[in-house]
Amino acid sequence: MWRLVTSLTALVSSSKSSILNQPASTLKIWKSLTTETPILARHGISTHDCTPFITFVLGGPGSGKGTQCAKIVETFGFKHLSAGDLLRREIACNSKYGSTILNTIKEGRIVPSEVTVKLIQREMESSDNHKFLIDGFPRSEENRIAFERIMGAEPNIVLFFDCPEEEMVKRVLSRNQGRVDDNLDTMKKRLKVFEAWNLPVINYYAEKGKLHKISALGTEDEIFEQVRPLFAACEQINSKTLLFLEGQ
Ligand code: UDP
Ligand code: MG
Questions:
Q1: Strand partners, 162
Q2: Could you tell me the CATH number of the domain that includes residue 197?
Q3: Which of 115, 183, 190, 200 is the most buried (most CB within 10 A)?
């Protein structure tokens, strides 16, 4: 799969450039983003030699994860992987897990980690992009641990869309996407699951200093104005790196 860009790392560690005067966490982001231009090809680095840049997008049902992901894709060129959509695709194509997934979703419960991680893994490995938004996953500590084990990777950043329950219920019941779980009965179960299983994951990343909490109330554009600076900072580091490489 992905390997660390050792040649690039060596290039960097031998330099005293100002981009190196960054905190370790910023450097990690920087390292992951410096990969997708012809400049890299000139240095003999292909996109498959890169570490992926992984963003987990968390929040309760109806908190606006998918909507904001679409804006991030449009503005910053990420690949959007909605775990829920990947699972619904399995149902639609009658895969061997289809009926189990359907029943789990109807009950608002969480599909076994192995199934979800494999679907995410397949998408990541077949993508030309290496900047990923993983939307609606991990939904439990068990999901998180399985991802780390199978993928051998952790997220670079984690977004959490914080939304009051009444607002989530209102949005889900009015979104009319024909989903089997967008009804009051299942929604109540999903909110319970969110509190019991998703919140520990959110707390875990808060403790690790990776969590960015975003208030999910307001218009789509207002909310995006909280999201934009996070990715803009990464882009800025990336462009500095490309200038740096051009100077080599
Ligand atoms: N789901 C799951 N694991 C995941 C993502 C989704 O089991 O990693 C199931 C779960 O039953 C969830 C449903 O799929 O309630 C819908 O998830 P989705 O993220 O699409 O819903 P949203 O939170 O966006 O409303
Ligand atoms: Mg969604």
A1: 215
A2: 3.40.50.300
A3: 190
Q: How many of the other CB atoms lie within 10 Å of CB of 71?
A: 16
* 148 found inside a domain: yes
In a domain, 131, yes or no: yes
* pLDDT at site 236: 72
Number of structural domains found in the chain: 1
- Substitution candidate for ligand 1 out of 109, 111, 159 with most atoms within 8 A of CB: 111
Please calculate the CA angle 163-132-221 and round it to the nearest 5 degrees: 40
pLDDT (tens digit, 9 = 90+) per residue, 66-92?
999 999 999 999 999 999 999 999 999
pLDDT band at 40 (very low <50, low <70, confident <90, very high): low
Task: Please give the Cα distance from 121 to 245 (Å, whole number).
Answer: 30
Task: Report yes or no on 228 lying in a domain.
Answer: no
| Ligand 1 contact via 59 beta carbon (within 6 Å) | no
Most informative mutation of 65, 105, 143, 177 for ligand 1 (most atoms within 8 A of CB) = 105
**Alpha helices, H only, the chain:** 6-13, 24-33, 38-42, 65-76, 83-92, 98-106, 113-125, 141-151, 165-174, 184-193, 199-207, 220-246
In this structure, the dihedral spanned by the alpha carbons of residues 158, 163, 165 and 169, taken in order and rounded to 10 degrees, is -100
Residues paired with 81 in a beta bridge: 134
Look at residue 191 and tell me whether its pLDDT is greater than 70.
yes
Q: How far apart are CA 37 and CA 52, in angstroms?
A: 15
- What is the rounded average pLDDT for all residues in the chain? 84
Count CB atoms within 10 A of the CB of residue 61: 24
